[in-house]
Amino acid sequence: MSRHVIAAEPLTFVAILAVGLAACTGGDEPVVDAGDAAMLDGAGANADASSGKDSLDGNNPDALSGLDATTMPLLAGTWRAGPCNDAAPCVVAGFDPIVDLGPGVESCLADDSGGLIMIGRFHRTNGIAARKIARWNGRGWMPLGDGLERFGEALAVHAGRIYAAGAFRRTGVDGTALSYVGQFDGESWSPLGTGFEGEGDREGYGRALVVWNGQLIAGGNFVRAGGKPAQHVALWDGKAWQPLGEGINGPVHTFAVHEGRLIAAGKFSRAGLVDAANIAAWDGVKWHALGTGIDDQAFGLAVHAGDLFVTGDFTRAGARDARHVARWDGSAWHALSTGLNGPDKPFGRALVSFEGHLIVGGNFTDAGGIAARRVAAWDGQRFSAVGAGLGNWIEGLTVYNRRLVACGWFNHAAEGGPLGFGFFDP
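and the corresponding structure tokens:
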């Protein structure tokens, strides 16, 4: 999601085995978070019963029927689980029993010191207790301190620290107060000022983080940051939160940096003093619209081949039909073929540039008329499938050790194995 670092430490393949069922973890039964099941809304998992997501039962028919998978374009490779080797064998711990949709990994990020971080709704990874957040250090998965009280949604790494944002209000259980955003220094968590506040009795979730011009930017559902008015977006200057102009009039879900400007996207109609439909650019002084924007909320941004790409729930970008993914060339919007399609409310959630392709992940079975199971590659002219795809929807994409990494709510691939987190091995 536009905040990826390629790490240098080798790793053949990795997958998260998230949140153990009591039957699989013996006496270490996970504690159910109040509100976790209820928080699966349109900004994250979209997991209401009417959403039409495929069951995670590997025997369920997939919506690929009617498409000739033997002739479809393919980014050749295999989705793999791990870490599975003699030194660190995999322990299948099952998935979070709070919901019957799979291991909820909301975001994944390669850091700048050879690590890989994941954040979400889990309690365990590869048999190790790790509450909502964990890091792969090249040898195994490790918890980050006491973890987080409730689920996390966003990650950033800056100046040697890991930053997280989400629905949590403190660390662990009854731990350090964080108020929806916190920083980890390698040993413990600490707050960033007094964090975020929502409007009225609404919670002030943090939903997006990015580093822009050497400073941390946060977006989400909040209307105050550090006690100051800050409508849904704020800048942390190292000591205090600062607003970005007049802010944005609705939730921010994702960020990117394009041509020096900060790009924010989510579900809103106005940024600063301008009308801006769900996407806008901040130049350091004021907000700008990107044409007439997109007609529904966005969840993923990335820069690829010099252009800005966005994915989400929308079906139009500017005056063009653009089903769930679109390109902004600096002056106009463009569709990517026929976009992302499939039964039961298809959507896009994540983007990343990888091996000369733009990779898009979400919940779809058709990309530009090509059978593509929740993940597809755009080469500038057409889409290709990425291996045999994944068994349920993707929330995040990153690149680690020159391999594509996907995270989300899947618990199997066609080759079998990944639980919430998988590596594509070209």
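(Above: one complete record from the training split.) The first strand starts at residue 74 and ends at 75.
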